[in-house]
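Now for my pick.
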Amino acid sequence: MTTLTTVPGCHAPDQRTAPATHVTAQGAAWLASASARPGTTLALWEARPGAPAVLPCGTAFDVVNVPLVLGRRVMDLLWAEGPGCGPVAVHRGRMLLFVARGTAQRLPVLLAWEEWGGSGVAPAPLCHGRGDAVTVPPLAATPGPSRWLVAPDTRTPWLPGPEALLWAFVRAARAADAPHHGPGDIDFSFRRSGC
């Protein structure tokens, strides 16, 4: 999995300004496998690698769509204390977490069990599964409002399931509710070895 890396000793950039990562040919093939005509989708991307595309969910992946701050917390937890994450994109001010099929149906049930309130600190995620479609960023690493933070780089990327996301959502909400002195006291930097 291609990941966002930083120079040792430096703070990671903010997600809103983080550099984009590049989707490899194998990653593009995986994304295209979600469409009804993968060959056509790949041909369109070859002709226009800088253009976003709309792909259906529920066949190769589901998508959990969250606000940037919550997504950052969840992604940090998945990397620092959990199993890691799958591909992650930013589109129109929201974070798109690519997850295992079936997560879109199961995660809301698990969050309801935990009495997830959809508060301002931790709003309910939008879950896209079978019958839904999402806009994915361009394959090329281009800066802008639609880009890959963790780009797919393999034909079979590991994707977190509903249990891993539930754990991360609950931990992120608890961390957001913890008392602190001010907004600058919360560390949202990426956790990577050497930084």
